[in-house]
Amino acid sequence: MSETQKLRNIGPKSSAWLRQVGLHTREELADAGTVEAFMRVKRAGFKPTLNLLYAIEGALLDCHWQEVPDTRRKELVDAAEAAIAQLPPPRYKPAAGPVTTTVLAADTVPERPDEG
């Protein structure tokens, strides 16, 4: 069992994400900080919710994530949103535009050589 899994609020999935982004101990988590830890998980391609942001903060404060004060939660969300805005755009291409079909009039279609 990793040290991050032993932290309050950090379940198996969150612990696995944190380990995969190089955060194995409480000290490493504290050094990175709440928002940076959250952003590492996000940049790695995982889909963390704000609950992870609050869970990390609660783990560092050694309190239940729901006990993180509303003012602090707002600060965290604002900082995370600002960091997310700095991320490069996704690498995938957007869906193509609408498909149109062109119909040629019968008299404009060239004859095939095998037709006679």
TrEMBL record:
Domain of life the protein comes from: Bacteria
InterPro entries: TfoX-like, TfoX_C
UniProt signal peptide: none
The TfoX C-terminal domain, residue ranges: 5-79
Protein name: TfoX/Sxy family protein
Originating organism: Novilysobacter erysipheiresistens
